[in-house]
Amino acid sequence: MRKALSRAMKDDLRPEYDLTKLKGGVRGKYYQRAIAGTNLILVDPELAKVFPDADSVNRALRVLRDAAGATAGPSKRFRSGAARRKRTAA
Question: Over the stretch 39-79, which tens digit does the pLDDT of each residue have?
């Protein structure tokens, strides 16, 4: 059974392919270069219906960033009730 299977696999290769020219390939040679400029984030399927492409996702994220920046002001520290009473009593 194995011999018949290996013969069938050998017959699948076209005769015009020269395997001697394929020597010396390096696995993952361009991997770091390919992922250097990529920031891949998977979106849930229900969100993919609302945001069909990268431009719509980027627009929505920019609006969210701008809205968050506009509402974020300097944080105020609130004094406890006892500290407030001392200040008003003095």
Answer: 888 899 999 999 999 899 999 999 999 999 887 666 666 65
Q: According to DSSP H, which parts of 1-90 are helical? A: 2-11, 31-36, 45-50, 54-71, 81-89
Rounded-to-integer distance, Cα 70 and Cα 47, Å: 25
Q: What pTM was computed for the model?
A: 0.40
Q: How many other CB atoms are found less than 10 A from the CB of residue 62? A: 10
CA 66 to chain CA centroid, Å, is 21
Going by C-beta distance under 8 Å and a sequence separation of 6 or more, which residues neighbour residue 57?
Answer: 43, 51
Q: How far is CA 60 from CA 12, 36, 47, 56, 67, in A?
A: 50, 24, 12, 6, 11
Of 25, 57, 17, the C-alpha closest to 40 is 57
The mean pLDDT value for 16-29 works out to: 83
